[in-house]
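Lecture 7 notes: from sequence to structure.

We start with a single chain of 111 residues. Read the sequence below before looking at the structure.
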Amino acid sequence: MITRYAFFEGQIHAGQTDAFRAAVLSEILPKWRAFPGALSVRVTFAESRDNGAQEYPLILAISYPDLASVDAALASPVRAESRAATEAVLSRFFTGKIHHHVTTAHEYAPL
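Now the structure, written as tokens:
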């Protein structure tokens, strides 16, 4: 399985955490869920971090069966819709940047 992560590095505007989270779920999540070929969409909101660690108030993970599916999703019209919705929410609530990482997942049961 291939997972494409989006790391939202930065800060939510003071006092806007709940509004940011609600806007992500209502305005952007439907777009992320519409990516063709996606197997799962995981939205994670930060609750805490180590002292001195970089701040990531939001991490998005969308899993696909293979790299070709990632490429197809990124070439789809949904990507432009997703970017527009993301930019609209971030402009209201967030200062920072987004970077993406594509990974191959391996899952193991605990001992």
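DSSP finds three helices and four strands in the chain. Keep this in mind for problem set 3.
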